[in-house]
């Protein structure tokens, strides 16, 4: 009798079960809410073209409307409705250490009481210029500007002035900001003469921009043959990251260096994305090629608006006031931005790059594994170098913009939405990079890969 009683007492009553459930952390909301973002978007659209300050943010290419960000920290974005996202956009590149890394936040806070803009030089500019030159030795001298666009635009003006030539050679699919000279369509196939990629670019100016094929030295040679002694500069992203990540084939960058030397043209590396990301010395360090001129931006400002161009001292001697090539900026060398940049560059340790590589490699491996398990591997191409990667909905291989353009945009769009509704934010456009930061955790990766699995099923469900 006693034993039975005991046993009965020991039997688990139903009440505590409920208690345990209650004590568990609140479950993440399943359904993404957008009411507040939608309200902000309606107001934004009334006063701003497309409701945004930069077109890709509009979500137009994935047939949706944007969320509005409330705050960001580390690897996480929180939107106006309180939805949280693991963020792989990272402001399109600046945040190598995630949002608001302590060192950068502290530097900005410390600089703030000293003023926000002077119209006179300050110590922080000197200190950042010295660091840039040390990390990127080909940049013997540096001019700070406020964006990557300005950097590329100014570098081209300098190249034209120094060589006394007007033509610029760029590659289809490479982006160098929105200055007129660079807004030239990726001429399909053999198009050699520039066609304005945007209304408002004078046809005569567009003609001064020639378009070659990335990874195709023959297309470069052909343009030099067609325009002998007229090309001022070869502008290239040493790793293309604005048509999705496309790596240079072995010998491509070396070939550009040789052609530029032979033709007495300048070689401009646009390292606005790759600078400080692939290595402390950027892609030029990784591939061992010395460009004449380099553009920087994004990471350089630690999340504040900074760009820079620089290069050989004899070339930079042409920039005003040392020389006649005019270029100026009210907010250039801005003390808050310089302080953020210094803190950023001082955080670029070997351990940081090791962590970036580890995290990005793990993400790549995981994404490939999921694709293989679902039987979709042969419909996808994943390109990665260091902490930037792109999943192309395209069997590949992908070496240039024509390859890129064969991708399945509808499948990408479904994948994008599949990720978004599961709390993973990638750029709302098929041909962008995913940016991995040191702030991305193992948990972030797990969540991402879980979302990737479901999103990939959805991407191909109708494809
Ligand atoms: C982002 C980018 C630019 C333009 O920089 P902004 O700061 O947006 O003007 C130029 N070149 C490359 C390679 C870029 O990725």
Radius of gyration: 25 Å
- Encode the helix/strand succession as letters: HHHEEEHHEHEHEHEHEHEEHHHEEHHEEH
How is the CATH topology of the largest domain named?
Aspartate Aminotransferase, domain 2
- Under the CATH scheme, the architecture of the largest domain is 3-Layer(aba) Sandwich
Bound molecules: pyridoxal-5'-phosphate
Calculate the terminal CA-CA distance, rounded to whole Å.
68 Å
The CATH C-level class name of the largest domain: Alpha Beta
Helix content: 25-40%
Largest sheet: 7 strands, mixed
The CATH homologous superfamily of the largest domain is named: Type I PLP-dependent aspartate aminotransferase-like (Major domain)
How are the strands of the biggest sheet laid out side by side?
Answer: 4-10-9-8-7-5-6
Average predicted local confidence, pLDDT: 92
Describe the global form.
globular
Instruction: Tell me the β content.
Output: 5-15%
The tally of domains stands at 2
- Return the structural class: alpha/beta
Can you count the helices? 16
Uncertain segments of ≥5 residues (pLDDT<50)?
A: 1-11, 186-192
């Amino acid at each position: 009798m006693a034993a039975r009683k005991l046993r009965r007492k020991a039997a688990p009553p139903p009440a505590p079960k409920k208690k345990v459930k209650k004590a568990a952390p609140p479950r993440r909301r399943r359904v993404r809410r957008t009411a507040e973002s939608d309200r902000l978007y309606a107001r934004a659209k009334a006063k701003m073209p497309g409701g945004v300050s930069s077109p890709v943010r509009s979500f137009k290419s994935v047939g949706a409307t944007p969320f509005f960000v409330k705050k960001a920290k580390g690897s996480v974005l929180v939107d106006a409705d309180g939805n949280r996202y693991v963020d792989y956009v990272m402001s399109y590149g600046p945040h190598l250490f995630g949002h608001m890394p302590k060192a950068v936040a502290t530097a900005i806070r410390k600089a703030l009481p000293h003023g926000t803009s002077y119209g006179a030089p300050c110590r922080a500019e000197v200190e950042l210029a010295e660091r840039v030159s040390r990390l990127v030795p080909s940049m013997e001298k540096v001019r700070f500007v406020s964006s990557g666009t300005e950097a590329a635009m100014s570098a081209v003006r300098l190249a034209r002035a120094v060589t006394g030539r007007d033509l610029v050679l760029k590659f289809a699919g490479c982006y160098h900001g929105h200055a007129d000279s660079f807004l030239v369509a990726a001429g399909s196939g053999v198009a050699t003469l520039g066609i304005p990629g945007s209304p408002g670019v004078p046809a005569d100016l567009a003609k001064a921009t020639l378009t070659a094929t990335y990874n195709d030295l023959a297309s470069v040679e052909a343009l030099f043959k067609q325009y002998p002694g007229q090309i001022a500069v070869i502008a290239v992203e040493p790793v293309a990251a604005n048509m999705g990540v496309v790596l240079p084939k072995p010998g491509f960058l070396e070939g550009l260096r040789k052609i530029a030397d032979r033709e007495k043209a300048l070689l401009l590396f646009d390292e606005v994305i790759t600078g400080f990301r692939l290595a402390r010395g950027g892609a030029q360090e990784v591939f061992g090629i010395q460009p004449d001129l380099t553009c920087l931006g994004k990471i350089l400002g630690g999340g504040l608006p900074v760009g820079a161009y620089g290069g050989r001292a004899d070339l930079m001697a042409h920039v005003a006031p040392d020389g006649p090539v005019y270029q100026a900026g009210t907010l250039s060398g801005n003390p808050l931005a310089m302080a953020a940049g210094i803190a950023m560059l001082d955080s670029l340790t070997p351990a940081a790059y090791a962590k970036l590589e580890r995290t990005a490699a793990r993400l790549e491996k995981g994404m490939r594994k999921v694709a293989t398990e679902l039987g979709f591997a042969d419909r996808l191409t994943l390109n990665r170098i260091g902490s930037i990667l792109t999943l192309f909905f395209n069997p590949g291989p992908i070496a240039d913009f024509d390859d890129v353009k064969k991708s399945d945009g509808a499948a990408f769009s479904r994948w994008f939405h599949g990720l978004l509704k599961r709390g993973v934010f990638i750029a709302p456009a098929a041909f962008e990079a995913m940016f991995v930061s040191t702030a991305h955790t193992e948990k972030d990766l797990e969540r991402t890969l879980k979302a990737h699995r479901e999103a990939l099923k959805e991407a191909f469900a109708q494809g």
